[in-house]
Design brief:
With 601 residues, the protein is α/β, with parallel strands linked by helices. It has four domains: 70 residues, RNA polymerase II/Efflux pump adaptor protein, barrel-sandwich hybrid domain (OB fold (Dihydrolipoamide Acetyltransferase, E2P)); 247 residues, 2-enoyl-CoA Hydratase, Chain A, domain 1 (Alpha-Beta Complex), CATH 3.90.226.10; 191 residues, 2-enoyl-CoA Hydratase, Chain A, domain 1 (Alpha-Beta Complex); 38 residues. It is built from 20 helices and 25 strands. Strands 18, 19, 20, 21, 22, 23, 24 and 25 form an eight-stranded mixed sheet that branches. Strand 4 and strand 5 form a beta hairpin. Helix 12 runs parallel beside helix 14 and helix 16 crosses helix 18. The model has no long low-confidence stretch (mean pLDDT 89).
Length: 601
């Protein structure tokens, strides 16, 4: 009885490659059938000959219907229809089309665009991307997108001129840490945000939120793009676009870094402003409206370089760090992520000789000094990463590591107004506390503060509201604070600098050089002894009495004397500061709120 080839399931006959009476070899295809638009090849298990074909092309079969009858065995020569060995060097046509489309997105295929970037002293988007991510780790999302302009332009044209719709998005690792990355390509329609451009942003931010990934964003160019006719049926004004709220929603949940280069206006500026930290190149321009919008609003004609230069933004605190170029910007972004998202490091770092701290303060309590070298000695070598230095200069805000643990450092800077806290300093400190709390970084506060700034001029700046922000930020902290009173700790300013009270920190330390008081000693004497001093007629005797009173208050407020009043926890050898901080933080693991947006200011 002959063998048969039967239908394995309900199907339709597509082809019958071997005619009746012909021989076949093992592995030859004897029939092809269609099942739900997918073709199945029915092959011979061994050599043989076709005896009879029972169906025709196009016939509908039920499971088990006989297609052909065969006789197994050697029946003479047969031309094998088994596939020949695969040539792995051959590129299939569909893969060749993909490679061509991908090449059109590369810098090599866009020499004019690359030359334009070079003329401005900038790198290309893909060069920044390659510098940021670990080699071979970046997985690009939406690489083959083009501008939504197919109604009047060919696909080939759009692939050549609008690659990736002007933004590179994806996920890669940065120093081994998985991150979401968005890099605007400002050579594509001036970096404007088109329909698919926004779709790509939303997609990658969705991934970042779902997987809790840090985000590095290179915003550049203008705002929305009005020239995408394909999207006209989808939106008109586009005010329902969700990209901006999606990015803002990540604030306080994951680290957000913006690296700004070139011209960054309108929507691009909003993305930058919602980041934890804005790193900007020295020649960048940042503003809520570019020249075209300014002129359109009847506000005058300006060159792009005149709108929002860094000479304006750095002193105002709009940007956190100004760097020389994009390479330095990428390096800064990596440093920030390593501190806020990297956790503790297990590397054994040899700190500076801590005995240096005994000698960092001048012997004359009225002599100013630079706080930064002191911070460099206290922290792990090379780890101090200062933010917003030109803004609110009487306060220092920096990220650093102490014994491998990432911390937020806040400190007075006696070089500026003796370290007194004004409106800018209060805003700078309050936002930094929110940033550290969001990312679970404990705070180390070094206090040499004579109090808040005073006078009619500072009150005209809304001083009350600004300094109150600092108290509100302190009381909301969920991460621990360790306070170190280095020298002066006077009044409300000192209290605000350590979380709202000298008992707010987990540990409040004082150096032997520390002095505390309800207000500056000289002011305290002027207020408290006004009548007594006015009663002394001789100016020399009056000054001598004033100085004796100040010295008496100073003696009462010195650390070793006032330690008996328990306003702080311990007076220590400055050389032991690092050891005490490390012990306190190990005992008080930071929690971190991780859900509230970080104040933009």
């Amino acid at each position: 009885m002959p063998d048969v080839i039967a239908a394995p399931m309900a199907s339709t006959v597509v082809s019958l490659p071997v005619p009746a009476g012909s021989s076949f070899a093992a592995g030859d295809v004897l029939a092809v059938v269609d099942v739900m638009k997918m073709q199945h090849q029915l092959t011979a298990e061994s050599a043989g000959r076709i005896l009879e074909i029972h169906v025709g092309v196009g016939d509908h079969l039920s499971e088990g219907d006989v297609i052909v009858s065969i006789e197994v065995g050697d029946h003479g020569p047969a031309v094998s229809r088994v596939d020949q060995p695969i040539d792995l060097d051959v590129i299939p046509p569909e893969l060749a089309d993909l490679h061509r489309a991908e090449r059109l997105t590369s810098d090599e295929q866009r020499p004019d665009a690359v030359a334009k970037r070079r003329s401005r002293g900038q790198r290309t988007a893909r060069e920044n991307l390659a510098d940021l991510c670990d080699p071979g780790t970046f997985v690009e999302y939406g690489r083959l997108a083009v501008a939504a302009q197919r109604r009047h332009r060919s696909l080939d044209d759009l692939r050549s001129t609008t690659p990736a719709d002007g933004i590179l998005t994806g996920v890669g690792t940065i120093d081994g840490r998985r991150c979401a990355v968005l890099v605007v390509d400002a050579t594509v329609i001036a970096g404007t945000q088109g329909y698919w451009h926004h779709q790509k942003i939303d997609r990658i931010l969705e991934i970042a939120e779902r997987d809790h990934l840090p985000v590095v964003f290179f915003p550049e160019g203008g705002g929305g793009r009005p020239s995408d006719p394909d999207a006209a049926r989808v939106f008109t004004a586009g005010l329902h676009i969700t990209s901006f709220s999606a990015f803002a929603r990540l604030s306080g949940r994951v680290p957000l870094v913006a690296v700004v280069s070139g011209r960054c206006f309108a929507g691009s500026a909003v993305f930058a402003g919602c980041a934890d930290v804005i790193v900007a190149t020295a020649d960048a321009n940042l503003g809520m409206a570019g020249p075209a919008m300014i002129e359109g609003g009847g506000m005058g004609t300006y060159a792009p370089e005149q709108v929002g230069p860094m000479s304006v933004h750095a002193p105002k605190g709009t940007v956190d760090l100004v760097v020389a170029d994009e390479a330095a910007g990428v390096a800064a972004a990596k440093r920030y992520l390593a501190l806020v998202a990297g956790g503790a490091t297990s590397e054994n770092v040899e700190p500076a000789d801590q005995r240096e701290l005994r000698h960092r303060l001048p012997s004359d309590r009225r002599q100013v000094y630079d706080m930064r070298p002191l911070l460099d000695v206290l922290a792990d070598p090379g780890s101090v990463f200062e933010l917003r230095r030109p803004f609110g200069p009487a306060a220092i805000t920096a990220l650093a590591r102490i014994d491998g643990r990432a911390v937020g450092l806040i400190a007075s800077d006696p070089m500026h107004r003796a370290g007194a806290i004004g409106p800018d300093e209060a805003d700078k400190l309050a936002r930094f506390l929110r940033l550290c709390d969001a990312h679970g970084l404990p705070i180390v506060s070094l206090c040499d503060c004579p109090g808040f700034m005073v006078g009619p001029e500072v009150e005209e700046a809304g001083h009350v509201r600004h300094v109150s922000r600092l108290f509100l930020a302190g009381v909301r902290l969920t991460v621990p604070i360790v306070a170190v009173i280095v020298r002066k700790a006077y009044g409300l300013g000192a209290m605000a600098l350590v979380g709202g009270s000298l008992h707010a920190p987990r540990l409040t330390l004082a150096w032997p050089t520390a002095e505390i008081g309800g207000m500056g000693l000289e002011g305290q004497v002027h207020l408290g002894m006004r009548r007594e001093l006015e009663a002394i007629a001789d100016p020399t005797e009056r000054q001598a009495a004033f100085e004796r009173a100040v010295e008496n208050l100073l003696e009462r407020g010195r650390a070793v004397t006032s330690a008996a009043h328990l306003e702080f926890d311990a007076v220590i050898d400055p050389a032991d500061t690092r050891r005490h901080i490390t012990a306190a933080l190990e005992a008080a693991e930071p929690i971190g709120r991780g859900r509230d947006p970080i104040d933009a200011w």
